[in-house]
Write a structure and sequence with these properties.
Ferritin; about 170 residues; mainly alpha; binds hydroxy diiron-OXO moiety
Length: about 170
């Protein structure tokens, strides 16, 4: 059984993961309409992954005798300037999510909830991977520069969101 505090913070995370999915979906639409199919594919896959994160939380809350809250998702931006600016935003967002996961860990400790503390470790590890894969893409972008976006787009094609370096090899 979840304490009210743990249930509430997990529900806040349900909303954040839903927003992450929307944000990456909006980025995918932007990239696709800019003619960047490879980047769009990566973002569509990322949006799917975020939806899975949201569902993971929803199922866990219900399983532990709580009730998941499904609320309206905030509208994400639709314009992202340049590919580099967009990936900087992805990184900023993932760091924000890492911060929220750390807050959940802290609430679990405060509430003496070892079960949720153990369960949330999956997200702790996932955030390490997500930040690393976005960092790898930003490093690549720095190397190719704005003039070789076509090459970068081909390069990223076929990579799945969250798989980062491993998929690039
Ligand atoms: Fe991007 O890991 Fe969930 O939000």
């Amino acid at each position: 059984m979840l304490s009210k505090k743990v249930e509430d913070i997990l529900n806040v995370q349900v909303d954040k993961e839903g927003y992450s999915s929307h944000l990456y979906l909006s980025m995918a639409v932007w990239a696709e309409t800019e003619g960047l199919g490879g980047i769009a594919d990566w973002l569509y896959a990322q949006a799917e992954e975020e939806r899975i994160h949201m569902l993971k939380l929803v199922r866990y809350i219900n399983e532990r005798d709580g009730k998941a809250k499904i609320i309206a998702v905030k509208e994400p931006p639709a314009e992202f300037g340049s590919v580099r600016e967009m990936f900087d935003k992805v990184m900023e967002h993932e760091q924000f999510i890492t911060g929220s996961i750390n807050e959940i860990v802290q609430v679990c400790i405060d509430e003496n909830d070892h079960t949720t503390h153990n369960w949330i470790q999956w997200f702790v590890t996932e955030q390490i991977e997500e930040e690393a894969s976005v960092k790898a893409l930003i490093d690549k972008l720095k190397l190719v520069g704005d003039h070789h976006m076509y090459m970068f787009d081909r390069d990223i094609m076929g990579m799945r969101g969250g798989e980062g370096e491993a998929a690039a090899e």
